[in-house]
Design goal:
CATH architecture of the largest domain in chain B: 3-Layer(aba) Sandwich
Largest sheet of chain A: 5 strands, parallel
Number of strands of chain B: 14
CATH superfamily of the largest domain in chain B: Thiamin diphosphate (ThDP)-binding fold, Pyr/PP domains
Largest sheet of chain B: 7 strands, mixed
Distance between the termini of chain A: 37 Å
Bound molecules: thiamine diphosphate
Strand order of the largest sheet of chain B: 3-2-4-5-7-6-12
Number of domains of chain A: 1
CATH architecture of chain A: 3-Layer(aba) Sandwich
Radius of gyration of chain A: 20 Å
Oligomer: heterodimer
CATH topology of chain A: Rossmann fold
Chain lengths: 347, 321
């Protein structure tokens, strides 16, 4: 259930609020803890299908949704476990969706990262990259038509996803409509195995913002403080009516494309470079430097995160999957228009 | 030495590249990485400059192949999953499929679609799209079910002067094995009798061939002899082989993994009902996936697609009608 977005939504969007940095870091820790667990469950053969993690992208992902309020819209992508948690998704629902639990938001019908609760503004991505941009744009369009103001939608995408026709069409339409849309581009240098030089030829993806006629923001995706500052500005600008905002963050995916992938294609030099830093290490250092947390606190938070994951796992593992016998095998909401012929044919 | 279905696909591409300098391969991660499923492993090194990574741009991937084909190339493009070919649908069905009809210039491209369901694949990594592509005039649609066909039909696909949609089943990639690659092959467009029988004709293709053969085997103990036909190519559809079999058995079941509405199974039944009505001793029936997106949970997925058990159950009904 979406709880955080409603119950604990940040009241103050000011970066002066020290609580934001602390809360962001705890979300990053929690995300890392769930994902480490998912990786080990995958290795143990306990998850069917793929496992796609966002390790290394927690700072950017958290910042993407932490400034959203109840009533806002979040359309996350592959590497957004952290942002999902910051928006109110739970560890339990995460695990449920990977296990295909009937109690999870996707009821075993869809899995892993393909989860959401659209009624709570938490959109459930499809795999086809770029497809969420226009959809979140459309949601914002409808809200505006309904007279709602101050609503913001955030959606994210990777460097590779920016090459889709859908991405271009989505951003362009949002720009034409001046929608309060924030598009967060996680430039993690690779799309699966494909390096950026085979993906696009512009010097910087940020250059595209100008082409669309929208505002662009650049940030260091390995730096939690920078991510928070940038996203705070971008979300605020969208909220204030300045139209779509494109945020481009540079970072590196610190895991394979999925857990089946050893990412042997990643340039070793990049791993050692600034872009290959682990944002959790950077974040811990920043909190200590700024006097926002003590080492004791950081360690306590990490073990709390660990405990939360274990507790959720305990529940999710015991839940049943959907029962094919009692499953409603229809894909329409309008019951009278269901083509019941196929039900009869099976008898 | 044995060769898998996936290795056969790789070997066919290797041979096509070696035999014909006009052939090149384009798609996401197909280069040094060798493709998401490794269907192009080492080919970029073996054929420098002819196996290239594309951006994540399915429309452009297909569109560029069409343009290159007009200029004399014979491109093979790989969709990372069949499901993502919808992002290139316009180029496939409106550009490639209409080119020859409109301009008298053929369009020799091959679009490889890693198709069909696997455990945990879910709604967007499981689709069987042969019916959609067959619906559009101007495309050849292949659905190989064996290692031998995966090899020889892909080679033929490259040689054909028209756009070929090559539906290769992911479930067969690693597990389906043959002793060696074939030296000769049946031509595309001809169906194959995969198992002879006298009591009913079971028409199928792709991975469902294996569920169907298993079901036929299971019914032997009950005294039934099922004739199993592997269509191999769903467009064109070898109606003659199907009708000749139905003439012998008098009963027809068509099995497909795709959705039920208006697909390959519906087409086969329509043809047999029209051309072979008098041959039938019972109403022809079909078995397809359920009319919902392909579910993620393995238990739902197992109930969603036809399995050998479901095929056998359907056959029993048909045989006692
Ligand atoms: C339209 C489309 N084509 C292909 C794919 C298969 N695919 C899934 S993720 C991926 C790479 C994505 O790269 P990027 O957008 O850079 O995100 P990252 O994985 O690096 O986070 C590809 C090619 C897809 N999901 N959608």
């Amino acid at each position: 259930m979406i709880t955080a977005a409603s119950d604990t939504a940040i009241a103050v969007e000011s970066m002066d609020n020290p609580d934001i940095a602390r809360r962001a870091f705890r979300t990053m820790q929690l995300s890392r803890a769930v994902e480490d667990k998912l990786a080990s469950l995958y290795r143990a053969g306990m998850i069917k299908g793929g496992v796609f993690l966002g390790k290394g992208q927690e700072a950017l992902s958290t910042a993407s949704s932490i400034f959203l309020r109840k009533g806002d819209i979040f359309g996350p992508c592959i590497r957004d476990q952290a942002g999902r948690l910051a928006f109110g998704d739970t560890v339990l629902d995460t695990l449920r969706t990977y296990f295909g639990s009937a109690q999870g938001p996707m009821r075993g019908r869809d899995g892993n990262i393909h989860r959401g609760r659209p009624r709570d503004g938490y959109y459930a991505m499809i795999s086809h990259l770029g497809s969420m941009v226009a959809m979140v744009g459309g949601a914002l369009y409808a809200r505006r038509q309904r007279g709602e103001t101050g609503v913001v939608g955030v959606t994210s995408i990777g460097d590779g996803g920016t090459s889709t026709g859908a991405f271009h069409e989505g951003v362009n339409f949002a720009a034409v409509e001046k929608l309060p849309l924030v598009v967060v581009v996680a430039n993690n240098q690779y799309a699966y195995s494909t390096p950026n030089n085979r993906q696009f030829a512009c010097a910087d993806l940020l250059d595209r913002a100008a082409g669309y006629g929208i505002a662009g923001h650049k940030t260091d995706g390995t730096d939690p403080r920078a991510c928070l500052e940038t996203l705070n500005r971008a979300v605020q600008a969208a909220r204030d009516g300045h139209g779509p905002q494109m945020v481009v963050a540079t970072l590196l995916r610190l895991v394979g494309h999925g857990e089946h992938d050893d990412a042997g294609y990643v340039d070793a030099g990049l791993r050692k470079a600034n872009v290959g830093r682990d944002c959790l290490d950077v974040g811990a250092r920043q909190l200590l430097e700024d006097g926002l947390a003590t080492t004791g606190e950081l360690a306590a938070w990490a073990s709390e995160a660990q405990a939360e994951v274990e507790a959720a796992l305990d529940i999710a593992q015991r839940e049943k999957g959907p029962d094919p016998e009692s499953e409603d095998w229809h894909a329409l909401s309008t019951e009278r228009l269901v083509d019941g012929y196929f039900d009869a044919e099976e008898e | 030495m044995s060769v898998t279905y996936l290795e056969a696909i790789r070997a066919a591409q290797e041979r096509a590249l070696a035999d014909d300098p006009r052939v090149f391969i384009y798609g996401q991660d197909v280069g040094v990485f060798g493709g998401a499923f490794k269907a192009t492993k080492n080919l970029a090194a073996e054929f420098p400059g002819r196996v290239m990574d594309s951006p994540i741009s399915e429309d452009a991937i297909v569109g560029m192949a069409i343009g290159a084909a007009v200029e004399g190339a014979r491109p093979i493009v790989e969709m990372q999953f069949a499901d993502f070919s919808t992002c290139g649908l316009n180029q496939i069905v409106n550009q490639a499929a209409t080119l020859y009809y409109r301009t008298n210039i053929p369009c020799p491209i091959v679009v490889r679609l890693p198709s069909g369901g696997t455990v945990g694949g879910g709604p967007f990594h499981s689709q069987s799209m042969e019916a959609i592509y067959s619906h559009y005039p101007g495309l050849v649609v292949m659905t190989p079910a064996t290692v031998e066909d995966a090899y020889s039909m892909l080679l033929e696909a490259v040689a054909i002067d028209d756009p070929v949609i090559f539906c290769e089943h992911k479930l067969l990639y690693y597990h389906l094995k043959a002793d060696k690659l074939p030296d000769s092959a049946m031509p595309a467009g001809k169906a194959r009798i995969a198992r002879a029988g006298r009591d009913a004709t079971l028409v199928t293709y792709s991975a469902m061939l294996h569920e169907s053969l298993q079901a036929a085997e299971d019914l032997v103990e009950e005294g039934w002899q099922i004739e199993v036909i592997d269509l191999r190519t769903v467009k064109p559809l070898d109606t003659d082989t199907v009708l000749a079999s139905v003439a012998r058995t008098g009963r027809l079941l068509v099995v497909g993994e795709a959705w039920p509405w208006g697909g390959v199974s519906a087409e086969v039944i329509a043809r047999v009902a029209t051309e072979g009505f008098g041959l039938l001793d019972a109403a022809p029936v079909r078995l397809n996936a359920k009319d919902t997106p392909v579910p993620y949970h393995p238990d739902l997925w197992a109930a969603h697609r036809p399995t050998a058990t479901a095929v056998a159950a359907r056959l029993r009904q048909l045989l006692t009608q």
